Amino acid sequence: MTHVNLKINGTETTVEVEDRTLLVQLLREKLGMTGTHVGCDTTQCGACTVILDGKAVKSCTVLAAMADGGCVTTIEGLADGETLHPVQEAFRTHHGLQCGFCTPGMIMAAVHMIERHGANLDEDTVRHELEGNLCRCTGYHNIVKAVLAAAHSAAK
Amino acid sequence: MYAFTYHRPKTLAEAAEQFDAGEDAAFVSGGHTLIPAMKSRLSAPSDLVDLSGLADLKGIEKDGEQLVIGAAETHAAVAANPVVNEALPTLAALAGSIGDVQVRYRGTMGGSVANNDPAADYPAAVLALAATIRTTRREIAAEDFFDGLYATVLEPGEIVTSIAFRVPSEASYAKMRNPASRYALCAVFVARFPGSVRVAVTGAGNDGVFRWTEAEEALSANYAPAALEALQLDPAGMLGDIHAEPAFRAHLARVCARRAVAAPGKLTLC
């Protein structure tokens, strides 16, 4: 067993976990934060994407112990009370989801992408940088629209 | 995944001690190959010694005619690094073509090279750029380092600390990706040095990455795509699977080599 200290969505958290516990298991099973999804569990689909120390990572392939001392933002950390985060709002406005399973990962990847590119984000870059997020409904078109809209509205 | 004990050493010496003390220990860096392998129980180490936080394995610098990159530098760090982009832009582009955004934040150069996946990108650069692999015990020439599929000459407990690439006058990399996994079905790294050309092929060989000496000779005589027209690799030495037959991979090697030569200084995704 190991003690893991993390700042999760701004809250200092200490959890005792087995060494083999994945970051996503810590979030979902230990803390009940089930917004972060497990899709493929093989580092491909990106449904488990969270922001760890400022970088988008696949939390199914990071050990909780490896993240010790780090800062994690999950989908639960985006909205301000009842007010959705601009990227969440854009996904709603542009219907950037069908079944919604991939959405938390898509939104976390998009938040990180917009942080890096800002209003310079273009469609090619969005499509390229969403390579690590799979939507099995194949709803990419509206996802790309939503990311672009959020990027452009953030700049205003 | 089976249970194991996780260690986060503060120094290389401590990492070596923790490795030696484990019954069947493994080093981990980004873990983006090892953790999936452990989940599927293809790998079951007793101890994981995490190298990713060691300062001794970080750093990127130009040292005379060599570009030296710390083993724990991530693909994202290599892709974005100004020194790499200045000295060896093709290597930066190669790093930026591995996996996806999230994978590139975790995966490391040292981990990729030590794992020697037959479809990995870095081994082609290491071999074509006549790199030297520096470890906690010695310096190993790229020629002597790779030892067949998923195998290298690294001894148990030996840690790759950095890789020193010889800076070429020109380099290019062309990759045909598997459309689903995005791993290389075949990729060719061409490096041009004063008086010589080195060509390394990854993704295709049934013994892992290899130098294509016939292509090197042809390009040394005439550095042009046309010089490769008549060359044909023997399919008997190629990998075959549901994605590509050996003859197709042999064909792809020539196509990739030609496209690499035609686009100097660049990454070409075929």
- What's the quaternary structure here? heterodimer
Query: Termini distance of chain A?
Result: 48 Å
In DSSP terms (H or I, runs of 4 or more residues), the helix count of chain A works out at: 5
The CATH topology of the largest domain in chain B is: Uridine Diphospho-n-acetylenolpyruvylglucosamine Reductase, domain 3
List the main descriptive attributes of the protein structure presented here.
heterodimer, A: 156 residues, alpha+beta, Ubiquitin-like (UB roll), DNA polymerase, domain 1, 2 domains, five-stranded mixed β-sheet, 5 helices, globular, B: alpha+beta, Uridine Diphospho-n-acetylenolpyruvylglucosamine Reductase, domain 2, Uridine Diphospho-n-acetylenolpyruvylglucosamine Reductase, domain 3, Enolase-like, domain 1, 3 domains, 31% helix
How would you characterize this protein structure?
The complex is a heterodimer of chains A (156) and B (270). Chain A is α+β, with helices and mostly antiparallel strands. Chain A folds into two domains: 74 residues, Roll (Ubiquitin-like (UB roll)), CATH 3.10.20; 69 residues, DNA polymerase, domain 1 (Orthogonal Bundle). Helices cover 34% and strands 16% of the residues of chain A. Chain A is built from five helices and five strands. A five-stranded mixed beta sheet of chain A has the order 2-1-5-3-4, sandwiched between helices. In chain A, helix 2 packs across helix 5 and helix 3 packs parallel to helix 5. Chain A is globular, with a radius of gyration of 15 Å. The relative contact order of chain A is 0.16. The model of chain A has no long low-confidence stretch (mean pLDDT 96). Chain B has three domains: 46 residues, 2-Layer Sandwich (Uridine Diphospho-n-acetylenolpyruvylglucosamine Reductase, domain 2), CATH 3.30.43.10; 112 residues, Uridine Diphospho-n-acetylenolpyruvylglucosamine Reductase, domain 3 (2-Layer Sandwich), CATH 3.30.465.10; 100 residues, 2-Layer Sandwich (Enolase-like, domain 1), CATH 3.30.390.50. Chain B is globular. In chain B, strands 4-5-8-6-7 form a five-stranded antiparallel beta sheet. Chain B has a five-stranded mixed beta sheet with strand order 12-11-10-9-13, with helices on both faces. Chain B has a three-stranded parallel beta sheet with strand order 1-3-2, covered by helices on one side. In chain B, 51% of the residues are buried. In chain B, strand 11 and strand 12 form a beta hairpin. Chain B is of the alpha+beta class and 270 residues long.
